[in-house]
Specification:
The protein is 29% helix and 21% strand. By secondary structure, it is α+β, with helices and mostly antiparallel strands. The chain folds into two domains: 37 residues, no CATH class; 54 residues, Winged helix-like DNA-binding domain superfamily/Winged helix DNA-binding domain (Arc Repressor Mutant, subunit A), CATH 1.10.10. The protein has a three-stranded antiparallel beta sheet with strand order 1-2-3, with no helix packed on it. A hairpin with a 4-residue loop joins β2 and β3. α2 crosses α3.
């Protein structure tokens, strides 16, 4: 309400009061604090920004394979919302790097 902007890592929102709990905060005047509670009644609007993911396609495929080594390329593509050809290319790169072993290396047979 007073025009200040506070940026920080969202920790929690109280659903009843709409109070917002932030960590590692910095306000529009450059002041920092380890934590801040913003009372729900004093909030005019909220803009939530997520940092860009540093996880590569290969990382995401490896994570999926770690959970289910019998999954097909088509299923991986569907989970990641990408084309099966992109999954095949990423798997090829992972094989060249030596990061796929055992059943995971045979994923292309599970089409």
């Amino acid at each position: 309400m007073d025009g200040r902007i506070i940026r920080g890592r969202l920790v929690q929102i109280d659903e009843e009061t709409m109070d917002i709990f932030l960590e590692n905060c910095i306000d529009s005047e450059g002041r920092s604090s380890p934590a801040t509670v913003i009372m729900g009644g004093s909030v005019l609007y909220i803009n939530i920004l997520s940092p860009p993911s540093k996880e590569t396609l290969e990382d995401r495929i490896l994570r999926i394979l770690a959970n289910n080594s019998n999954i097909t390329i088509a299923e991986i593509a569907k989970i990641l919302n990408i084309k099966p050809s992109s999954v095949r290319s990423a798997i090829s790169r992972l094989k060249k790097k030596g990061l796929l072993f055992g059943n995971e290396a045979n994923i292309e047979k599970n089409k």
